[in-house]
Amino acid sequence: MSHKAWMKTVPTENCDVLMTFPDTTDDHTLLWLLNHIRLGIPELIVQVRHHKHTRVYAFFVTATYESLLRGADEIGLRKPVKAEFGGGMRSFSCEEDYIYENIENEFYFFTSQERQNIIRYWLENLRAKQGESLHNIHFLEGQPIIPELAARGVIQQVFPLHEQRILKRLMKSWVQAVCESQPLDEICDYFGVKIAMYFAWLGFYTSAMVYPAVFGSILYTFTDSDQTSQDICCVVFAIFNVIWATLFLEEWKRRGAEFAYKWGTLDTPAESIEEPRPQFRGIKRISPVTSAEEFYYPPWKRLLFQCLVSLPVCLACLSFVFLLMLGCFQLQEFVLSIQELPRIIRFLPKIVLAIIITACDEVYKKIAYWLNDMGAW
Q1: pLDDT digits (tens, 9 = 90+) for 174-198
Q2: Beta strand 293-296 with 157-160: parallel, antiparallel or unpaired?
């Protein structure tokens, strides 16, 4: 099934994250992963579903309210505090859960994206034990299992389910609304702070562009046709843009800090050290820093690959495009030099060039992905 079809397929109300598998997945793989999830993350509730037409298996993952509270404590999720306890935002603590707003209502305390973030955190931190393996996949001790299986194609997709009720409300108040302010708080609750901050900046930038647009239109209207008047107006407009850009940046710093404080990310600590990406390959060694087993790829091998493979391939692709462009230009001149040809034939070189560029774009995209994966090991 397609990604969008899965997102609209919700067989149970209590489903936050969906994990799908290729139709070739065997029972041993499903049982192995299901057993590891249930033993390694007892907080999760996993239901197995099978689509009879596509023969695709999927795990519908959720958690109880009590488990989500413990997860919020574990990841330090920031939640609003009741006014009688000081207000503001504070990292959630199960020991003082009574101080947080809406703690008594399990349907309103967590937003959908907060539930999904907690579950995703648990799934991504399911670690392998020493010597564990699945078929030809051998895990290092402490290596995250889910990202590795997703990178190997064992897991097809892991994504959150949408809530159609909230999406319809956002469609009316946000997408279809005209000349109305964006519902940034609702966007933050549903999509998270990063998405909300992006659209907050986009809206602020769009509004701020009104000033140079109006000022530039006025200058253009009252500018004479002589060169001296046009030069003076260009200088004035350039000075205005410098002042406008400075004020825009300073005002956005203030506005962004307000949003960050309001959404509880102003004093968020720096993110912890990220795990190596699952596509990373190398030889096993003992880390001289942590004394733990890790994958290591020598820098000289990476440099050798870049010089002997990446650079020649890139130069060959650029040379091919350049020669192809010259060939199309020559063909265009040749076609235009023949007056007897029909008018539609004169557009043939441009059509050929457009088709070849489209085909090359797909080929070069695959080459770029391959070079990125190989060269960044």
Answers
A1: 988 888 889 999 998 888 888 999 9
A2: unpaired
- Output DSSP code: residue 88: S
Structural tokens at position 201 = 């900046």
Characterise 159 by phi-psi region: left (phi > 0), alpha (psi -120 to 50), beta (else): beta
Residues 6+ apart with CB under 8 A from 39: none
Residue 311 reports pLDDT greater than 80 = yes
Q: Number of helices and strands (H, E) in the chain? A: 13, 10
Specify the length of the chain in residues.
377
What pLDDT shows up at residue 11? 44
pTM, rounded to two decimals: 0.64
Q: Where are the beta strands (DSSP E) in 117-173?
A: 133-134, 137-138, 157-160
SS3 percent helix, strand, coil of the chain, rounded to 5, is: 60, 10, 30
- Beta strands 44-51 and 157-160 are unpaired
Would the pLDDT of 88 be above 70?
Answer: yes
Q: How far is CA 274 from the centre of its chain?
A: 16
Q: Which two tokens stand for residue 255?
A: 């506005």
d(CA 94, CA 67): 11
Rounded Cα distance between 38 and 48, Å, is 12
On the CB side of 188, CA atoms within 13 Å amount to 14
Read off φ and ψ for residue 56, nearest 5 degrees.
-100, 135
Scan for tokens 């457009």, then name that residue: 354
In sequence order, the β-bridge partners of residue 261 are none
Q: Nearest to residue 145, comparing CAs of 29, 22, 318, 319?
A: 29
CA–CA gap between residue 63 and residue 315 (Å, rounded): 52
Handedness of CA 293, 297, 300, 301 (dihedral sign): positive
Write the pLDDT tens digit of every residue in 23-61: 888 889 999 999 999 999 998 999 888 887 878 889 999
